[in-house]
Every structure is written in structure tokens, then in C-alpha cells.
Amino acid sequence: ALKTGSEATQEAALNALFLLRQAWSACPAEVSRAQSIAAADAIPLLQYLIQSGPPRFHDKAEFLLQCLPGTLTVIIKRGNNIKQSVGNASVYCKLTLGNTEPRLTQTVSTGPSPEWNESFLWSFESPPKGQKLRISCKNKSKVGKKSFGKVTIQIDQVVKLGAVAGDYTLLPESKSGPRTLEIEFQWCNKTISE
Asked: How far apart are alpha carbons 81 and 96 in whole angstroms?
């Protein structure tokens, strides 16, 4: 009903989800958890309504998105201009989100444009509001730089849009031009067991 129904049907379905969400606080914890997991199936549809639905739906859809459990997927695709003056670097990325254990990509030694195409997943009971993902690009090689820079990314937009992708510039900038990481972010209703 949220995606293919008429505007009136979409509004009724959105209102029903909204009322259900308001009732969770009166339910025992295990009941509200089960209901939130079931309601999480609506995440892609809520994201669709925020992007394509009538403006009057946006606030309710965004409020509901901020209450539902989901999974953040970060895909480190490749680096650009990750080079040093002497020899090939052995490059890896270190990802830190909030207080979670840092996660590392594989180490790659393929020249100035390393490719990882590695995915990292974090599950949340509700979206990580205000959290930042910190990614540092490092060199394991004994020769040359130890770090190629870092980037800090606010992930709130991913929850609202469902997917965000782009090139992110590592700081500090290099004299040989900007060093970038191509990264894709996804927020969905699939939860994982950690």
C-alpha cells in the first residue's frame, strides 16, 4: 500500500505505522522489539516516500525511519592517486564507526589505484543518529608514508536516502593532487547477527 497504492492509501498505511510506533512504548520490551523488526520491512518504502512521495508524508516517514532497526553496509570500492614517491604502497583502510571495533580492508599492493570492493556491515536497533564513520588509508609497506590520509563521513543521510555513493577526499591533501576513496553506503531493513 505504501508504494503502489493511491495517495490516500499510502497516507492510511503511513498513519497505521505511525500509530503502531507510538504504541510500542506501552508494550513489553520483547513485544515492541518484535513489532519494530516486523515494521522494518517498510524501510525501503519509507525511503521511497521521502524521495518521491508528497511533501506532507516526509516528516512522518522520516520519524518512522529513525525508530526502526536496520543494517548499515559500507562498501570500500577503490582508491585513486594513492601513491608514494618510492615503490608501491601496501595499502589498507581502517574503518571506525562510533565505539565499535575498527574494521580493516585487505592489504593491496597494486599501484596508485588499489581496488578492494569489500563490504562491512553494522546492525542497529535504531539508526545511528549523528554518528560519524572515520576511514583512514594506511601503508603497511616498510618504505614511504605510513598514512595517506583520512576522511570522516556523517552517515545520517544514508538512512533517509537508502543508498549514497561517491568519491571522498582524504585529508590532508597531497601535493600530487587529491587522494580519494570511492565508497558506497546502504541502509536497509536486513539485520545481521553479530
From this structure: 23
Same domain? For 81 and 174 the reply is yes
Q: Same domain, yes or no, for 112 and 17?
A: no
In whole angstroms, what is the distance from residue 187 CA to residue 43 CA?
Answer: 9
Is the overall model pTM greater than 0.85, yes or no? no
Query: Stretch 186-191: mean pLDDT, rounded?
Result: 78
Do the bridges between strand 147-154 and strand 180-188 make them parallel or antiparallel, or are there none, so unpaired?
Answer: unpaired
**CA 32/CA 34 separation, integer angstroms:** 5
Q: Are residues 57 and 75 in the same domain?
A: no
* Residue 182 domain-assigned (yes or no): yes
Domains in the chain: how many in total?
A: 2
pLDDT of residue 59: 85
What is the average pLDDT across 147-162? 89
What span, in angstroms and rounded, lies between the C-alpha atoms of 68 and 3?
A: 18
C-alpha cell at 149: 590520509
Residue where a domain terminates, one of 66, 81, 104: 66
Q: Which residues span the domain enclosing 19?
A: 7-66
Decide: helix, strand or coil at residue 157.
Answer: helix
In this prediction, residue 74 carries a pLDDT of 97
Cell of 42: 517498510
